[in-house]
Fold this protein.
Amino acid sequence: MEHPKDILKEYWGFNNFRSIQENIINDVLNQQDVIALLPTGGGKSICFQVPTLIKSGLCLVISPLIALMQDQVQGLVKKGIKATYIPSGTTQDDLITLFDTIKFGKFKFLYISPERLQASFIQQKIKELNINLVAIDEAHCISEWGHDFRPSYRRIQLLKELKPDVNFIALTATANKKVLTDIATNLGLQTPKIHQLSFFRENLAYQVFNFEDKLQQLINIFTKTQKPAIVYVNSRKKTAQISIFLNANNFKATFYHAGLSSVEKKLAFDNWMQEKTPIIVATNAFGMGIDKANVGIVIHLDLPTSIENYVQETGRAGRDLQKSFGVLLYNDNDIKIHQLNTQNALPSIKEIKDVLKKLYQYFRIAHGELTVENFDFTFFEFCKKHN
């Protein structure tokens, strides 16, 4: 068996692993289930790519975004490693050809979305493959307590039934204890080894400024900063407004949010990656899977929705290990708006009691009666019936 450092040197050109990467790789090679919590830019992919190249067989990678899959596959292919993914719109005939190519072509990596995994045809084809490892990227999507919850991630556990002898590695850049527990439970991991690295980054400075005129501060910052940047805001409308404002002040900017078409998203993303427009103004829909090393500054023009989001979003700066900045601009009005939005998002005691009363009616239970029965519950039917 080759040594992990030999593989690292051969394909990545590095002599040594970063921090806890080697410990994670050793646990994977010892057939352990692993949860790896590494900060953004901490080299998560190497933790499943290196052991796969040592072992015989294929690594099945569950990934949430086509763009992220394409990026990783292209990176592996450039290194001379056989890797592929299932593009959207692939017909069943194309899938048969693709899986035959994977099966007999000595491929090492197959990237697939959790939604694709639900098809019984795909499951049958996976059953026929010699899989040596299952890697779940962006694993916080499994948890309802995570910031990018994807219901389809909850059904990844079916792979444990298809491939009971294959170990799993779940990777994320952000997860609290509740989310980590949820990941382990929902994947059916057997006493997983948990590796967690500090989120402290020596080259990343966090700065918080209270300014009434935040737009003027944006101009001041971008007059001094020449590196690519991300500006995060909390509304789609604001992404376009701030982008227009920056362009009017002679800065090249574009914008990105979930409401754009796939063509518009790709154009905005490509222009930013190629630095035709080095500033991108975005909602937190822009983030997962972004791998641009030379981002010099991430600015939050609105208060982030959580500490986990803030850490992950600012962590997109300084992946080239150069000095970089996470800047939060706020004023007193922002705090009032944030508090008001939080209060408005929570139901009142009266509303909770009203829903409870309707649940009793829905299940025909006398109010206050204790019951040990389980009840099937159709959420939309309940909502329709009780308005």
